[in-house]
Amino acid sequence: MLSNVLESPFLWISLTVGLYLLAGKLKEKWPKNPLFTPLVFAIVALILILVFMDIPLDTYKKGGQFLSLFVTPATVALAIKLEQNFVYLKKYYPAILTGIFSGVIFHTVMIYAFSLLFGFEQEMGATLIPKSITTAIAVGVSDSLGGIVSLTVAVVVFTGVIGAMMGPTIFKWFNITDPVAQGVALGSSSHAMGTAKAIELGEVQGAMSGLSIVVTGLTVVVLVPFTVPITNILF
To answer: Where in the cell is it found (predicted)?
Structure first.
């Protein structure tokens, strides 16, 4: 009987959504506690449940995989917010594009620097380069560079979670109050998860973050062919 319940896809869909909604309620009560960030809370809680109950990941995927179907349309839907706030893009596009491009280049340089500092092999460096872009693009970039695709996915998720958790705190530390700057920072560094947090902060932040996801992903794809010779030399 229990095995039949665990095999039900509706159980895992309901549990995932339920944990997310529960975290939202806890966040309202304790807004300053980053552990109650809905995305973080739901991920950690699900991992703990699967581990302590010794439930295979394939069992969870019978229901959990259906939630991934909404990722693409949800990302495309961000264009609605961009259209509603298009005036900000027209007004600030030089600063927005400069911030995104410089961020991608700085991030790539830092990955190479840390790879050399910690003695990473080429495979590991290639795995980390696409960590700040959305998963669908990161997988292709990692594969083309010879990285470990499965590890890239894990690092992308981890990057998004940390960015969503720490973003608002960093804004307070450095007194970053401009909504355009907040949105660009979250979208270009923490992709979809950062954008979810940006939407919570405001309409403008959400729109700029959605734009940043696309531009950051395209910039990394264009930059990748130029990094291959550098990778061969350094490693």
So the answer is: Membrane
